[in-house]
Every structure is written in C-alpha cells, then in structure tokens.
Amino acid sequence: MIRQIVPMFFSTNMEASIAYYRDMLGFACVGTWMDPPVYAILQRDGHALHVRCAEPPVANPDKYADELLDAYVAVTDADALYAEYQGRGVTFTRELGDTPWQTREFVVKDADGRLLAFGCDLPSAGSADA
After folding, report:
1. Does domain 58-130 have CATH number 3.30.720.110?
2. 1-56 classified as CATH 3.40.50.2300
3. What pLDDT digit, counting tens, does each position of 1-35 carry?
4. Strand, helix or coil for residue 11
C-alpha cells in the first residue's frame, strides 16, 4: 500500500530553497547531504519533499501565463494556511479564492520559480458542514 508520495524538486540554489521552504512555508529541514548541501529533506505536518541541486531546467515561457503547476498540496484549511503565509510575507501568484471545481485554493511561486497550489474541498451544498 502507498503510504506517502514524496515530490523531488531540483534547485539551482540549495540554500535559497531550504530557506524559502523553512522560513516562508513553514517546513522543517530534517536532513541534508554534504556541506554545502546538495540534497535536503523538508517536512511539514507529517509530509516530506526532497530538494536536489541540479542544472537549471529549460525555461517554459508559458509556465506562468498558463499556471502550469509543479505540485498541488491538499490541505484541511486553505484560509488558515493562507493567513499564516501572509504573515510570513509569502508572495502569491494567485490569491485565495473559490474555484469552479469546488475547491478553495491559492498559488505561490517558490525560490526556484516552481508553482505550488494549496487547496481544500469546498463543503458541498447539501452537507452538514454547509
């Protein structure tokens, strides 16, 4: 059975990536490899992502205009996380809002230009939570 899927991100500046995920998005750096680091494991709320030093990827000029996401993070409370990230000074590429596909989401751009969406399901109109 799958217990967890861990994204693996490439970085051209490991120190900036570690600092962004730690200071802006609230992840803890739980391990690095080599000094200076060429690989890092970051965790938050029992979930991890790994970052590895690598050559810069080929630029995609439509990435931001088309909002080509690198990761979607399902959360329990998008409003609370959005407020936390506002307090940390995170820059949003899409502000918090409801979507036509019945989620509440926002999008950030990390230190390497990756787009990460954070979202939760909207309560259904007929549910007890509505």
Report:
1. yes
2. no
3. 767 789 999 999 999 999 999 999 999 999 999 99
4. strand
